[in-house]
């Protein structure tokens, strides 16, 4: 967007911007209110597209089953690759390090047995980190998090859940389903 015309959104944020509460997809105006000294860098879509293509090319060297979900996110089915790359965490670290060494940028990798948990795992710790979130780890790793951190829970759902006294993912997990259905 163009800050002079007062429109546009934040496409990506740095870790320091995150500490100020700047969020991806929020308006530039809202982001500047949170962080008046925010440095805005105009997007370079041609570069992003080229990096995205190279990123997917690297992933496809590790597995033929790659599902790209956005310019900078993809799911890799690593079923049957343990003999090649070792444990899922070892494979994830190899992929992460290969991307950094060959392409020059970092990625966070989530490891699990399904897409939702893998996505949540990748968001648990950034930047440049491999994190697991298997079903047996949900209680310890997810339940203490704010309910707004749950994938697919947006602003309006967060607001509604908070009004019901549901502040954490654990609170949500332990709320009677009939109560949730009625709201």
What does this structure look like?
By secondary structure, the protein is mainly alpha-helical. It is 46% helix and 8% strand. The protein contains 10 helices and 4 strands. A hairpin with a 2-residue loop joins strand 1 and strand 2. The chain is flat, with a radius of gyration of 19 Å. The mean pLDDT is 93.
Write the layout of secondary structure elements.
Elements: H1 15-19, H2 28-34, H3 45-62, E1 66-70, E2 73-76, H4 82-85, H5 88-103, E3 109-111, H6 115-124, E4 130-132, H7 138-141, H8 155-163, H9 169-173, H10 177-182
Parallel strand pairs: 3-4
Antiparallel strand pairs: 1-2
Helix pairs in contact: 3-5
Labels describing this entry:
10 helices, mainly alpha, 4 strands, two-stranded antiparallel sheet, 183 residues
Instruction: Give the distance, in angstroms, between the N- and C-terminal Cα atoms.
Output: 36 Å
Mean pLDDT: 93
Q: For the report, how would you describe the main beta sheet?
A: 2 strands, antiparallel
Strand content: 5-15%
Structural Rg:
19 Å
Strand-pairing-aware structural class:
mainly alpha
Number of strands: 4
Estimate the global geometry from the Cα principal axes. Answer: flat
The helical percent reads 40-55%
Strand order of the largest sheet: 1-2
The parts where pLDDT drops under 50 for at least 5 residues are none
Order of helices and strands: HHHEEHHEHEHHHH
Tally of contiguous helical segments: 10
